[in-house]
Design a protein that fits this description.
heterotrimer; A alpha+beta; B alpha+beta; C alpha+beta; A: alpha+beta; Uridine Diphospho-n-acetylenolpyruvylglucosamine Reductase, domain 2; Uridine Diphospho-n-acetylenolpyruvylglucosamine Reductase, domain 3; Enolase-like, domain 1; five-stranded antiparallel β-sheet; four-stranded antiparallel β-sheet; 10 helices; globular; B: alpha+beta; Aldehyde Oxidoreductase, domain 3; Aldehyde Oxidoreductase, domain 4; seven-stranded mixed β-sheet; six-stranded mixed β-sheet; 19 helices; 31 strands; about 30% helix
């Protein structure tokens, strides 16, 4: 289980990185950020990139700051950066809570937020977060820069809208309203394992009724996404068990469940119902 | 090290019975352990493994210039052919590298030799295997079906071993039963998963033509014997070393074809060759276990007294038979020990080992007993339900309480505490309080359950027990050499081969009490066939009993000689000599002589003892006991989430009797680790094959040993019933934790499921499987509505 | 064989000049090229944690980093934990509480626990349990590892 040979390239600037990527992408070149997903698949030789462009030495890619409307997360920002409050906004508590469910502590020391998104594992907590909150992805290449909405970014299991010469340089997460509530829940058989289903919810309450509900589901379909049917079931209702159950049921009915050797469609729906309800219950704590 | 205090048995100044820190630890916590993979080598081996579960090997094409070994190079090497002389066993041979056909995914077909692991793997990727694949048999029931392809020509119908038993008068008793209760139990396949995968390093010595094989093994001497046999070499030309070994649990007990190849290569290349198994190989191609279907019926009289048991055991043994135990190890263990701790006079059993196109089965901690205990303990709970009795009550009615007890299969149970440990567990867990909590939780939609498991654990059995199985290789006894060198330093050389069990410490404690010196002045040497006496290694909860017994015998001889030397040097009667604090003393006087002085004297002034004592201070002890039964009652309390099927083990309690405890800290550690593996067996761990014989769980994300998070705190309670069948009075306890846990957890899960009126008799009881039975219940309810 | 890079790894304060391929993992480099075999390899895919070392103060899986990425960083392994003959309180606690049996996973657990406690000395018991679920042990059932780490954490806080 030793990786196949590759050539490592170490750009010092983003421009160098993009130039290298433009040159090497067609020769089986890939970005190496935290490596916590890529290196294991290289160890199994399921991936044998000929070139790795190691972006860990690029100074500007570690920005983690807010302009008052969104939190900008650079390509080198590690999961552990969210252990504590990353921004003076309710979003910080959400990110901190979610981060603690990502794999294990030593993995969070190295793995990056943007790397998770670019890797696009359906079970990824950050992909769920980006999809639920409506993140904007900033893709950069020598050809220029473009913004990709989260809803357009995830294209399937480990597949994104990034072109092969594009680097996911930054992600912008919109800040939450000061009174926003959030809840998160995921199901895995062991601590730190990939979620077999997960849900992130946010909403506001006005006049005792839920508004602006966002209900995201991860791990259940080929990509995480917001479930409109569940959100409709929630909006306009008072927070509480009847609405939560209705939303959970709507979500489990709406998903097109992934199946694997241990999880058939029925079971995945069971899990979706459970994690959505629990994420909603968590929002009240 | 703490000074000796009163031991737990009331003797003054005893080391036995005390929780002293382990002598093994200082090296291990500082990174100074010596593990096989730490050794440097000139050549590295990578195995090219079959991607197909069944098929005919055609051309194997190696890249130009690469050194690639195939079966064609090994014509002179014998096949691994373990043998049983009973139970209709069919001898089948395993070639060192697959020859003509492949029989499971992961079977080694070729070996690449290169100058680094990376390079060897690069070349292995380029080796072209042309295999004409055929449909494999993965499930044992398919292999038993009429007309199934035959995996080995020697084993018609794919049955390689078949044990049957039926006690006289069985049918009449069966017919007289008031109730018959039945269970169809399924245990899925598991992998022992030691944290150190296998590794081997073979070094050729050009000065004398010897090879030193350093490898991860639990039985170094037998590896020497077996490999020398297969390669047609003298045993004296092979030295086998088991250095620090990173866990074994049975997986490192069997002979690996890979190790044979390493020795062959070292001789061929006259060089140093190494192989370190990677985790994927370990999961697909190291030994598997526990893949069984067990049907068990119990016939009870009207008072819920068990009259007779009828069992059918189908054990999927994989593609080959393991050496030395043979693949009879699982089905025959199941047959012999199915009745467990219960008094039942009539028994019928059919136990078959069935060949399939899957990885070879071998011993794994507990060997079948985790499965049969789970089966019979589930049966007792089902019977309790059928008789409207409490699960504890039905056990009390049936547990053995007169000793010695001869079982329906002829096993002799020595004194044990089946009922006492049950009572202790019931008391300590607080059943009434739990039932109240359970009721209250159900009202809130939470489902708690409690499960009991009572069982016997046969340990420390010697050669007659193995001979009874008809094993061509009959392990059992152990020899220990205890010596005092001229400086007074004590060494014990043992044939056992501990790898985490703390035997260097516990044996030192035994010697310390005999010789009156502290354990840290005693060095226990093991795991090197050049320096340790021939022995059988460490497995089957045997080492503390058998090696411990041999140690005691040898230490007593040394003690006797020291007393004679002291008597001579101090001019006192032997009866007046006491050994303590590193000295011999004349009782009631201040006359003393140190052990170091006595040792120096008997080596360097031997003439003074001429005609009375032999020079030197080296004694040997050999011990071959009949076996002794430990016992325990485990209790699990689980919290079952009906929405997801998730089970959390909330509380876990063990009431254990393993005879005299030599070191309580180490004993408790064995139980903790065993329970963790048992909980893994019960809830998490499963090797999953697809229909083509490919493995879907070839990494540690998909094959799931428990983490700290999944483990409850384990509450331990002890009874110490000194064994009459073991001269140290100790019984073994290495496997009990693993044996009891699946049963306790499954009973607890089923207790939690009671309100839904469904049951689950599958291990592991995964959330998916639990949800599946709950969904059935939901659908049934809908239908009725 | 691809091109090798000459680099220097700083392990426990000692400089090791080595020559490795880019694909050499830090775990392999520490063991094979620097001869520090106390760091063990259990899975090579980041699940078991046996290879955990501390890099620039962060506990990381050394099988998921390449050696070339560790140049210029301060690497600490189990061999550097004791101060001469004085064991680190974590090592002593593992011995006192029987937190090891075969000892194979032990270096990884020691470096994980020390690495996290140095960063978060006041970590809660629950969070500590989460941290310890990062690594696998097959012998101990974890109970005594948890006990040992909690005891050592108390002592480390007291210092």
């Amino acid at each position: 289980m030793k990786p196949a040979p590759f050539v490592r390239h170490v750009p010092r600037t983003l421009q160098q990185a993009l130039a290298m990527l433009s040159q090497l992408a067609g020769q089986d070149g890939r970005i190496l950020a935290g490596g916590q997903s890529l290196v294991p698949i290289m160890a199994f030789r399921l991936a044998k990139p000929a070139h790795l462009i190691d972006i860990n030495e690029i100074a500007g890619l570690d920005r983690l700051d807010s302009d008052g409307t969104a939190l900008t997360i650079g390509a080198r920002v590690r999961h552990a950066a969210f252990h504590g409050p990353a921004v003076d906004n309710p979003l910080a508590a959400l990110l901190s809570y979610v981060a603690r469910h990502i794999a294990h502590y030593p993995i969070r020391m190295r793995g990056t937020f943007c790397g998770s998104l670019a890797h696009a594992d359906p079970a990824s907590e950050w992909c769920l977060t980006a999809a639920t909150l409506g993140a904007t992805m900033i893709a950069k290449s020598q050809r220029g820069e473009r913004e990709i909405a989260a809803a357009d970014f995830f294209e399937g299991i480990m597949s994104t809208a990034l072109a092969e010469d594009e680097l996911l340089a930054e992600v912008r997460l919109p800040l939450l309203a000061a009174d926003a509530k959030f809840g998160f829940n995921e199901f895995s058989r062991r601590a730190g394992d990939f979620a077999m289903a997960s849900s992130l919810v946010t909403y506001r309450v006005a006049d005792g009724k839920i508004s602006e509900a966002r209900i995201g589901v991860g791990g259940a379909e080929s990509s995480p996404r917001r479930i409109e049917e569940a959100e409709s079931a929630l909006n306009g209702q008072p927070p509480g068990d009847p609405a939560f159950r209705a939303a959970a049921l709507a979500a489990s009915d709406a998903v097109d469940p992934l199946e694997d050797h241990q999880t058939n469609a029925e079971y995945r729906r069971d899990l979706v119902r459970a994690v959505v309800r629990r994420a909603l219950e968590h929002s009240l704590t | 090290m703490n000074a000796p205090t009163k031991g737990s048995h009331g003797d003054a100044l005893k080391w036995v019975g005390r929780a002293i820190r382990r002598l093994e630890d200082p090296a291990l916590v500082t990174g100074q352990g010596h593990f096989t993979a730490d050794l440097a080598a000139t050549h590295w081996v990578r195995f090219v493994r079959s991607p197909n579960a069944a098929g005919t090997i055609g051309n194997i094409k190696a890249p130009d210039g690469a050194l690639v070994i195939t079966a064609a190079d090994l014509k002179a090497v014998k096949k691994i052919t373990p043998m049983l002389h009973k139970f209709e066993y069919k001898a089948v041979g395993q070639p060192i590298l697959a020859e003509d056909v492949v029989r499971f995914v992961g079977e080694a077909v070729a070996a690449v030799v290169a100058s680094s692991e990376e390079e060897a793997e690069d070349i292995a990727d380029l080796v072209e295997l042309n295999i004409d694949a055929s449909m494999p048999l993965v499930d044992s029931r398919d292999a038993l079906a009429n007309g199934a392809p035959q995996i080995h020509i020697e084993a018609p119908g794919n049955v390689i071993v078949k044990g049957t038993v039926k006690t006289p008068g069985f049918d009449g008793v069966w017919a007289s039963a008031a109730k018959v209760v039945k269970i169809d139990a399924r245990s899925h396949r598991q992998n022992a998963t030691p944290m150190e995968a296998r590794a081997a390093h073979a070094a050729y010595d050009r000065t004398n033509g010897r090879v030193t094989l350093t490898c991860t093994t639990q039985m170094p001497h037998l590896m020497r014997t077996a490999i020398a046999d297969l390669l047609g070499m003298r045993e004296s030309d092979l030295r086998v070393i088991a250095p620090d070994v990173g866990g074994g649990f049975g997986q490192k007990m069997s002979l690996c074809s890979e190790y044979v190849l390493l020795v062959w290569l070292a001789r061929k290349l006259k060089s140093t060759v190494a192989w370190t198994e990677d985790r994927r190989e370990n999961l697909i191609a190291s030994f598997h276990s526990r893949d069984q279907y067990v049907t068990l019926e119990g016939a009870f009289d009207k008072d819920a007294k068990l009259l007779a048991l009828r069992a059918d055991v189908v054990s999927n043994v994989g593609a080959y038979s393991c050496f030395p135990t043979t693949c009879g190890v699982e089905p025959l263990m199941a047959m012999a020990e199915m009745p467990g701790p219960y008094d039942v006079r009539h028994y019928q059993c059919l136990a078959r080992g069935v060949l399939t196109n899957t990885c070879t089965m071998a011993a794994y901690r507990g060997v079948s007993r985790p499965i049969i205990t789970f089966t019979i303990e589930r049966l007792m709970d089902k019977a309790a339900k059928a008789f409207a009795l409490d699960p504890v009550d039905i056990r009390r009615r049936n547990l053995i309480d007169k000793f010695p007890y001869t079982s329906a299969t002829g096993l002799v149970y020595d004194e044990a505490t089946y009922k006492e440990t049950l009572d202790m567990a019931v008391h300590e867990i607080g059943v009434p309080a739990f039932r109240a909590r359970q009721k209250e939780a159900r009202a809130r939609g939470r489902y708690l359950g409690i499960g009991f498991a009572t069982f016997s654990e046969r340990t420390g059995y010697g050669s007659p027990a193995f001979a009874a199985r008809g094993m061509a290789i009959t392990p059992g006894w152990e020899t220990v050499h205890v010596s005092v060198d001229p400086s007074g330093y004590v060494e014990a050389r043992i044939g056992s081969s501990p790898h985490g069990q703390g035997l260097r410490t516990t044996l030192a404690q035994i010697i310390a009490d005999e010789l009156g010196i502290p354990p840290d002045l005693i060095k226990v040497i093991h795991g090197d066939t050049d320096t340790a006496p021939y022995g059988w290694g460490t497995f089957a909860s045997r080492s503390l009993v058998i090696s411990g017994g041999a140690t005691l015998i040898a230490a007593r001889k040394v003690r006797a000689k020291l007393v004679k030397i002291a008597s001579h040097m101090l001019e006192a009667a032997e009866n007046d000599i006491v050994l303590e604090g590193g000295h011999a003393k004349v009782a009631g006087t201040d006359r003393t002589v140190s052990i170091a002085s006595m040792a120096r004297e008997i080596y360097t002034q031997a003439h003074r003892f001429k005609g009375e004592l032999e020079p030197g201070l080296n004694e040997s002890g050999t011990y071959d006991p009949p076996g002794t039964f430990s016992n325990a009652c485990h209790v699990a309390i689980v919290d079952l989430d009906p929405d997801t099927g998730f089970v959390k083990v909330e509380r876990y309690l063990v009431a254990e009797d393993a005879g005299r405890i030599i070191n309580p800290m180490i004993a408790d550690g064995q139980v903790h680790g065993g329970v963790a593996q048992g909980i893994g067996n019960a809830l998490l761990e499963e090797i999953v094959y697809d229909g083509d014989g490919g493995i879907l769980t070839a990494n540690l994300a998909d094959y799931m040993p428990p983490t700290a998070h999944e483990m409850p705190n384990i509450e331990l309670h002890h009874i110490e019933t000194p064994s009459t069948q073991s001269i140290t009075k100790a019984k073994g306890l290495g496997e009990g934790g693993t044996i009891g846990a699946p049963a306790a957890v499954l009973n607890a899960i089923n207790d939690a499921l009671t309100p839904f009126n469904v049951e689950i008799d599958i291990i592991p009881a995964t959330p998916q499987r639990i949800r599946a039975v709950l969904r059935e219940a939901e659908q049934a309810k809908k239908k009725i509505a | 064989m691809t091109e090798k890079t000459a680099l220097t790894l700083s392990i426990n304060g000692h400089a090791h000049a080595i020559n490795v391929e880019a694909r050499r993992t830090l775990a392999d480099a520490i063991r094979e090229d620097c001869g520090q075999t106390g760091t063990h390899i259990g899975c090579e895919h980041g699940i078991c944690g046996a290879c955990t070392v501390i890099v620039n103060g962060e506990p990381v899986r050394s099988c998921l980093m390449f050696a070339v990425q560790a140049e210029g960083k301060k690497i600490r392994t189990v061999e550097g934990l004791a101060d001469g003959d004085t064991l680190h309180v974590m090592q002593q606690a593992f011995m006192d509480h029987h937190g090891l049996q075969c000892g194979f996973c032990t270096p990884g657990f020691l470096m994980l626990a020390v690495g996290v406690l140095e960063r978060e000395p006041n970590i809660s018991d629950d969070d500590l349990l989460d941290v310890l679920s990062s690594n696998l042990c097959r012998c101990t059932g974890y109970q005594n590892i948890i006990k040992a780490v909690r005891a050592a954490a108390e002592q480390m806080r007291g210092k």
